[in-house]
Design a protein that fits this description.
The chain has 192 residues and is an alpha/beta fold. It has a single domain, classed as Rossmann fold, CATH 3.40.50.2020. Helix 5 links the parallel strand 6 and strand 7. Helix 3 packs across helix 4. The chain is globular, with a radius of gyration of 17 Å. The N and C termini lie far apart (42 Å). The protein binds zinc ion (ZN).
């Protein structure tokens, strides 16, 4: 099972965990950027990180793994494969939140592990928790690759992450790196 250091090394090797001065899609700035698909495009590395999640919950009596689209669905499939259980996908619902479509069923009391890639505000995990509970099933927790909220996001369930980083997102006016005149990078591309 990878420890915290292994997880960080694997993410860095894949180029998925970047340090610098980043303009996020929210318009906020951060010193950390996680490009999850730099990792997920490499199955061999992704599988190693999924081992950490699967081992953490191996004795938890997981019956089904649920992952929100897009990255979470891929990781849920692999964690479910390792645990020998079913995996289902939570998709965005029309009125907000998430739901299970495509004929996916959950029984009342069914023990469900949620898996996702990167948690920032906790919205995707929270909405998947609500979708599982809508069916009367039991959420055992959420296993993540990266919690970039430093443990502060409201996921509505217990969270275990292979790597936790405290990467606050700040308004440009409050950004210490702007104050130091450091060059701003927009999602891997230098902003001009
Ligand atoms: Zn800045």
């Amino acid at each position: 099972m990878p420890n915290m250091t292994d997880a960080e090394r694997l993410l860095r090797e894949a180029g998925a965990l970047l340090r610098g001065h980043f303009l996020l899609s929210s318009g906020l700035h951060s010193d950390t950027y996680v490009e999850k698909f730099e990792l997920i495009q490499h199955p061999a590395i992704t599988v190693q990180l999924c081992v950490g999640i699967a081992e953490r919950y191996r004795e938890a009596g997981v019956q089904t793994v649920a992952g929100p689209t897009t990255g979470g669905a891929i990781l849920a499939f692999e964690v479910a494969r390792q645990l020998g259980v079913r995996s289902i996908i939570a998709e965005p619902a029309e009125g907000g939140g998430r739901e299970f479509r495509r004929g996916f069923r959950l029984d009342p009391g069914e023990r469900v592990l949620i898996v996702d890639d990167v948690m920032t505000t906790g919205g995707a995990v929270r909405h998947t928790v609500e979708a599982v509970e809508h069916h009367g099933a039991l959420v055992l927790g959420a296993g993540l690759l990266v919690d970039r909220s430093g443990g502060k996001a409201d996921a509505r369930t217990h969270v275990w992450a292979a790597l936790t980083v405290d990467a606050p997102s700040v308004e440009p006016q409050q950004c210490p790196q702007c104050a130091h005149g450091l060059e701003l990078t927009k999602r891997g591309t230098t902003a001009h």
